[in-house]
Amino acid sequence: MAEDPGAVTGTPDRPTLAVWKFSSCDGCQLSVLDCEDELLTLADRVQIAYFPEASSAAVEGPYDVSLVEGSITTPGDAQRIREVRAGSRTLITIGACATAGGIQALRNFADVEDFVSAVYASPEFISTLAESTPISAHVPVDFELNGCPINKRQLLEVISAHLARRRPRVRAHSVCVECKRRMTVCVMVAHGTTCLGPVTHAGCGAICPSYDRGCYGCYGPMETPNTTSLSARMEQLGAGELDIVRMFRTFTGAAEPFARASTEHERDAG
Amino acid sequence: MSAGAGPGPEAGEPAEGTRVLRTDVLARVEGEGAMYVRLDGRRVEEIELRIYEPPRFFEALLRGRAFTEAPDITARICGICPVAYQMSAVRAMEDACGVHVEQGPLRDLRRLIYCGEWIESHSLHVYMLHAPDFLGFSSVVEMAAEHRDLVERGLRIKRAGNAVIELVGGREVHPVNVRVGGFYRAPTRSELRVLVEPLQRAREDAIATVGWASTLPFPAVERSLEHVALVDPDGEYPIDRGSIRSDRGLDIAPAEFAEHIVEEHVERSNALHARIRERGSYLAGPLARYALASERLSGPAAQAAREAGLGAICENPFQSIVVRAVELVEACDQALAIMERYEEPDAPAVEVIPRAAVGHGATEAPRGLLYHRYEIDAEGTILDATIVPPTSQNQLAIEDDLRAVVEEGIELPDRELSLRCEQAIRNHDPCISCATHFLTLTVDRG
Questions:
Q1: Which of A29, A115, A216 sits opposite B60 (nearest CB)?
Q2: pLDDT averaged over chain A?
Q3: Which of A225, B50, B293, B308 has an alpha carbon 20 to 30 Å from A184's alpha carbon atom?
Q4: How confident is the model at residue A123 (pLDDT cuts 50, 70, 90)?
């Protein structure tokens, strides 16, 4: 836990909630507004104190709970996240950008100068960091919710658990378990479709296989993923080294187990 | 603790006779932007919509990826309108590969999921982002305390739109089912049936929304702008395809976009500003679509527009909320018509074989024209990508609006005039997350 931020503005019955945006697409914070059935109930249970996408009123912090979307990509944001941490009793990151650096972390694998000069011709007035990093690389995080985007049911569970002072019921097993639970036929076994489900963190409800496509890993690595074994199987199914690099290196590509797997295959591809 | 301020023009003591209006964190828009207005006496000296959200370099990170990955990757540009990105991306890739998905159930499904996104995005904007301006609240939650029925109606419409995206696409944000050539799995007729009742209800709610929106108080601001939108070849209201036209003579294929529309980089913004080469600023989005295609609206939408007192064109940007509501009716009606005629396709996708080529795709995102261009090689690897989102096209028009609003409301006290300026920005539902991917930059290695 970080240093105690001091008295918060909420009450024990109705804690304050803040929603912060860093480098991101806004999709995870939109999940709050996509809780059409629960939004007004949620607003009764917590005081939504700071949420610029939804409200032009801002209650001064500190806050009981901060939901943080997005990754850190600028020097200014690296400072701002420290201020958010200092002003939050509990800090929860939401989504692949905040927990793994997001799609914009693909720059971490390139020489960023080449990356940039390849596309942008003229000098610029803003600054950016060479890497996109998750919130946990900068400040202590109390809970990380995975997903690109997050699952709004899981978000409500995390907030409810916080209100009830219990641990959130968010499983760290693989997407495969979710497929079995919903009795989806395994796309890899039955159709030979490459799938990251065996190494990917559960939470989405195994949507992709139910739409006849392989999982593309947007919830990031599960606990102790065996990427080597899965890669070998995908190679047997005909995936080339470059295909495997791309699969591991997409929306959560900078998460350590996926980054290691893609880097190994990139080396093998020469 | 400060509530996340963006870098604005240098603060300091304004000179004698100078009046400054500034909002460092624009609320109820998607993404991070700020507003700055400076007046000298009664003269507007400076107006800017500053976009400070950091860029994420999508056009760079697409290089080297497979052409089949573009719809999934570009969806992540915007969590509010991912379907729009997917649709422009698949059209561009199919164009490059010489494949056309223009008729039949696959095109119907595309139009259906796109209608779902229009319904979700427009209801979000009308009820959650824009309505609080007109009714004097800071948020939809605060508004719900006094207007519970109104808010619940908005949430019902939004839920129906999300249900369409979820069923056809797999989930509301960043759907997984869209692919180059079609879909991974086509829903069955009976699966779609569950959407009929909520969409019929949403259509009724949307008609009521038009009536309600038309009674809101609108500042007297008229803007004569060049409107740019797609024109559908079969006479439908423009959503998923068409040529690019304006009401001042522009008439081009998507492939000619860059010949006629230039993007300029200006210091004050992290987004490029688009303008028509020959003439200058223009407007995309609901007001533009309505100006070019109001006679193409379906029966219920046309009737709702008529009863709301809209003419063939609407030039008061504050009334965009009415036009957006009319488009809600249209999207619900289109979605219902598609479900009525839908037959399951023989295959969920047509085969798309890559070839070395350039492809262009243009569709109507909820906020306006969204253009993609890709160059791919014979293996289907992306060599180059260009994406022009609606908000960078509208940025100049939004600033022009601000000028008109300030001039019209110059007698108002600062706070009221600031609020009206913010409302004027929200008139165009800017998506700043979309607009910031087109920048040059300096790298700070810390």
A1: A115
A2: 91
A3: A225
A4: very low
Note the pLDDT tens digit of each residue in B184-201.
999 999 999 999 999 999
CA–CA separation, A136 and B344 (whole Å): 47
Q: What is the overall mean pLDDT for chain B? A: 91
Quick one: closest CA in B to A43, which residue?
Answer: B141
Q: What is the pTM (predicted TM-score) of this model?
A: 0.94
Given a contact cutoff of 8 angstroms between Cβ atoms, the answer to whether B433 and A97 are in contact is no
Q: For residues A195-224, give the mean pLDDT.
A: 97
Contacts of A119 in chain B (CB under 8 A): 57, 59-60, 63
Inter-chain contact B28–A21, Cβ cutoff 8 Å?
no
Q: Residue A72 domain-assigned?
A: yes
Phi, psi dihedrals of residue A125, rounded to the nearest 5°: -105, 0
**Nearest Cβ partner of A48 from B141, B433, B439?**
B141
Query: Structural domain tally of chain A?
Result: 2
Q: Taking CB atoms and an 8 Å limit, are A33 and B66 in contact across chains?
A: no
**Spatial distance between the Cα atoms of A37 and A234, rounded to a whole number of angstroms:** 41
**Which chain B residues are closer than 8 Å to A103 by Cβ?**
56, 58, 61, 73, 76
A24: nearest Cα among A129, A94, A128, A115: A94
Residue A8 forms part of a structural domain: no
Instruction: Name the B residues in 105-134 with CB < 8 Å from any A CB.
Output: 124, 128-129, 132
Residue of chain A whose Cα is closest to the Cα of B177 = A211
- Residues A26, A116, single domain; the answer is yes
Chain B contact present for A126, CB below 8 A: yes
pLDDT in tens, B126-158: 999 999 999 999 999 999 999 999 999 999 999
Closest CA to B168 of B86, B237, B67: B86
A246 in any annotated domain: yes
Band the pLDDT of B270: cuts 50, 70, 90.
Answer: low
What was the ipTM of the complex prediction? 0.94
- Mean pLDDT calculated for residue range B22-47: 88
* pLDDT at residue B280, rounded to an integer: 87
C-alpha B290/C-alpha B210 separation (Å) is: 14
Closest CA to A106 of A269, A268, A224, A255: A255
| Mean pLDDT, range A178-192, rounded to an integer | 97
CATH number of B58-394: 1.10.645.10
Q: Is residue A168 part of a domain?
A: no
Q: Find the domain containing A226 and state its range.
A: 175-269
> Domain locations in chain B?
18-54+397-435, 58-394
- The band of B42, judged by pLDDT with boundaries at 50, 70 and 90, is confident
Q: What is the DSSP string of A145-167?
A: E--SS--HHHHHHHHHHHHTTS-
Cis peptide leading into residue A62 (ω within 30°): yes
Nearest to B314 by CA among B251, B395, B247: B247
Q: Give the pLDDT of residue A120.
A: 47
pLDDT of A122 above 50 = no
Mean pLDDT across the stretch B167-181?
Answer: 98
- Taking CB atoms and an 8 Å limit, are A86 and B1 in contact across chains? yes
| Distance (Å, whole) CA A120 – CA B59 | 10
Same domain, A196 and A247: yes
Sign of CA dihedral B131, B172, A57, B36: negative
pLDDT at site A117:
55
